[in-house]
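Ligand-bound model needed. 1,3-dihydroxyacetonephosphate.
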Amino acid sequence: MIRPVIAGNWKMNKTIAEAVDFATRLREALGSRDDREVIIAPPFTALQAVAEALRGSPIRLAAQNLHEAEKGAYTGEVSAAMLSEAGCACVIVGHSERRTLFGEGNERINRKLQATLTEGLQPIFCVGETLAEREAGRMPAVIEGQLKEGLNHLTADDIGETVIAYEPVWAIGTGRTASPGQAQEVHRLIRDWLGQQYGAGRAAETAILYGGSVTPKNISELMTQPDINGALVGGASLDVATFMEIIQYQ
Ligand code: 13P
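Prediction:
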């Protein structure tokens, strides 16, 4: 049985002061509740301060991106070891905004996943098709291609450390959520693919999150689906009360 994972991706939002205030209030609101795994992903600048604010709490800290090299002449970039030192436990890798706005392809994402795992951090590896791909009937091929190329060289043990997030690009920030049935179909496809590659046991233990316009209104129905193990929340993770409502879905 996978403990439900509710992760908040803040994207490029919140100052350090706002982030610390959020983390402090979230921690209070959550108390000792541990039947849901809660993750927040602030921007780089706030990571260390939020790590301090969360010290001793079950809430885990994630970065939104990393560079795959250990160190060197990569102006503006941040390595896995730097994130680990700042207090991160997880890193979001391959988010669709990184793919489309910053030109990250599957091969690059694969190197980022390897760098994340080498550092002992947990990747939250994102996959998802665009509307044009879905309408052209290419959703299964696109998702399988992202999995195959993104997870290249990873072992079954690596998969055991990895969380997968299905985020249909057409549902991100649009208010247009995939229906629970549409999401379940893709989550099933992902789990079946993992089963073929790494064995059914590993596939059954892998948390697969849904992302794309998740709100307190639609979370419960999404979570009734057998292969949806949690949510990667964007806009609705920026307010403590709203995010808590999602965490406390029934
Ligand atoms: P929204 O919840 O704002 O649609 O964003 C989803 C997302 O991209 C999370 O990573």
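The first strand starts at residue 5 and ends at 9.
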